[in-house]
Write a structure and sequence with these properties.
Length: 586
């Protein structure tokens, strides 16, 4: 190799070496930050509980410069085992605020309702339905999370998304846009973890202090801050860009999951048609505007012409200039995406339509423009459950839970219902529901549960207090509520032996013996020195007639306490019965 060639290579290598050294130096001096999707839950000292992970609550900050005014949206705390067990059924949910269960929280979410129901359906499996959905995000975040989700080896991924493509974070009409093109935004997602990129981003932030109007910064709600383009006409360039953004990103998402062998369940999305007037409309010569179609829908509804009324209301939503609701074309894209191999279509929109009065989704199922009531959330979760059953991805369900049974026992407390309605009252007291911020008119707190929810809304208490209050009240007054409270507390804190033991015992008393071992095994894993835990576990197995499973737990009792009267009495009888079964079979 001649000297000229060597000098050329050195010249080319210098900038790469410079940036590599700069990146390494920034990391060495701990500049910048890592914002992984999942984080370790810190174990208590001397704990024998297995290690757990949880989705990082403030992961949305990864899309904003350090110190900037990132929106206060979080992923609700939900835990899963760091080391996936062999018997695990692990599902991850992705999407925006509806997928996350806003305003009610994890219990109302797709993940929360499915986790509660699938645990009953698969009593002998470790069931984990992990929520990674959060408000205000769109398909860019769904795509950005994929690689980290694949690392957790899910058995399926569920997606309910599409409403935030225009005005969500990184949306085409959003004030929180990283770049002006899809290619540039995808590059931004690749570079955002680089310390050099973060340095440049933070410098830029210091000079610009964010491109958000001052009056929006003073407002209470995120919705008032996010809408940069308040006028996106039907069929316009921005309108088509939002559809293309969703189509391209979710296509990439599906391709990644297909390559990893992970099935995807993707749902159609729904919004309020009958009882949500368009947020923005302009008069047009041909009367093809949102307000006109909405008024026509109301007239047709009054005339009991429900089919044409629905068509008019749908056009009113599609022509709404302020795009906080996805247009019908988004569902057309979802239907096409679901035709991919190993992708399953969930028609939550159709299920909600069938449940709605006159077949037009309105206030009985939607709180405002698109967030469901508890009944609405149940319909969505039920649609996913039924689609999973039909797909046979997990084989035959050992204990299928019917829609009617599941609807009588949803994992939501009455106090959470009030809490959620209070949040909606706050949301609707500001843009885009009113021209100017209004005083929040909270629903009347009539019952003890309402007052508990009011305290939560005022940030005086949290979900754990609500659950504990329900548990304490129900202990003497309501066995069904006590059982639900015990189970929810145990699932919320799988590393707490006392909570899980209480849930297991409550299930035994309720004669739900198949459900009890899940919780009692957790209790044993956390505290291996309490003989009551393996004793209760052996009891649950004996009541099921599973003698072989009971034996090792009875033996473990005698290791801890050789003179334990119960174990010394029962164990010889169980072994004798097993021996007689072997002899009779021979």
């Amino acid at each position: 190799m001649n000297k000229t060639r060597v000098y050329q290579l050195i010249a080319l290598a210098i900038p790469f070496a410079f940036f590599a050294l700069l990146e390494g130096g920034l990391r060495l001096f701990d500049y910048g930050r890592d914002m992984p999707l999942f984080m370790d839950y810190p174990q208590a000292e001397n704990s024998t509980a297995p290690p757990y992970l949880l989705p990082r609550p403030d992961v949305v900050k990864r899309y904003f410069p350090e110190g900037s005014a990132a929106p206060s949206v979080t992923i609700e705390t939900n835990f899963f085992l760091k080391n996936k067990p062999e018997d695990a059924l692990r599902i991850v949910v992705q999407g925006g605020s509806t997928a996350a269960g806003f305003p009610f929280g994890y219990g109302a979410s797709i993940a929360g309702m499915l986790d509660y129901r699938l645990k009953q359906s698969f009593p002998d499996k470790t069931v984990e339905v992990i929520n990674t959905a959060l408000a205000a995000v769109n398909s860019y975040t769904v795509l950005d999370f994929v690689d980290e989700i694949i690392e957790q080896k899910p058995d399926a991924v569920l997606i309910y998304a599409g409403h935030n493509e225009y005005l969500g974070i990184l949306g085409v009409g959003s004030a929180y846009t990283a770049a002006n093109s899809a290619a540039a935004t995808l590059l931004y997602l690749k570079l955002k973890d680089s310390r050099i990129f973060q340095l440049l981003q933070n410098i830029y932030w210091q000079f610009t202090k964010a491109d958000v109007p001052k009056n929006a910064q003073r407002s209470r709600t995120f919705m008032s801050k996010v809408a940069k383009h308040k006028n996106i006409p039907f069929g316009s360039e921005l309108y088509e860009a939002g559809l293309a953004q969703f189509d391209n990103n979710i296509s990439l998402v599906i391709a990644k999951y297909q390559a990893a062998g992970i099935p995807v369940f993707i749902s159609s999305i729904a919004s309020n048609l009958a009882d949500q007037a368009p947020f923005s409309s302009k008069e047009t010569p041909n009367e093809q505007n949102a307000d006109y179609y909405y008024q026509q829908g109301q007239k047709l509804l009054a005339q009991a012409n429900y089919k044409k009324a629905k068509q008019a209301f749908t056009k009113a939503r599609d022509y709404d200039l302020l795009r906080f609701r996805a247009p019908s074309a988004m569902n057309d894209i979802i239907i096409e995406l679901a035709k991919n191999e190993s992708v399953y279509f969930v028609d939550a929109n159709q299920a909600l339509t069938q449940a709605a009065k006159h077949g037009i989704i309105g206030k009985s199922l939607m709180l405002e423009h698109l967030h469901p009531t508890i009944d609405g959330y149940f319909v969505i979760a039920d649609s996913f459950y039924n689609a999973i059953v039909k797909s046979n991805v997990f084989g035959q369900f050992p204990q299928p839970i019917s829609t009617a049974k599941a609807q009588k026992d949803v994992p939501v407390f009455d106090a959470e219902v009030y809490w959620g309605k209070a949040k909606i009252a706050g949301l609707m007291a500001d843009y885009p529901f009113t021209d100017k911020p209004q005083k929040v008119k909270l629903p009347v707190a009539k019952t003890p549960s309402d007052r508990l929810g009011l305290s939560a809304y005022r940030k005086k208490i949290g979900w754990l207090t609500i659950a504990t209050e329900n548990l304490n009240y129900a202990k003497k007054n309501d066995p069904a509520l006590f059982l639900k409270s015990a189970k929810l507390l145990a699932d919320a804190m799988p590393f707490d032996a006392a909570h899980n033991y209480r849930a297991g015992v409550a299930l035994i008393k309720a004669k739900q013996f198949f459900q009890a071992p899940r919780y009692l095994k957790r209790a044993v894993a956390v505290n291996q020195s309490d003989v009551n835990y393996p004793l209760a576990l052996s009891h649950a197995y004996l009541e099921q007639g599973k003698l072989k499973q009971a034996v090792p737990w009875l033996e473990s009792v005698l290791v801890l306490e050789p003179k334990n009267a119960t174990a010394n009495d029962i164990l010889p009888k169980v072994k004798a019965r097993l021996a007689s079964q072997v002899n009779s079979n021979n």
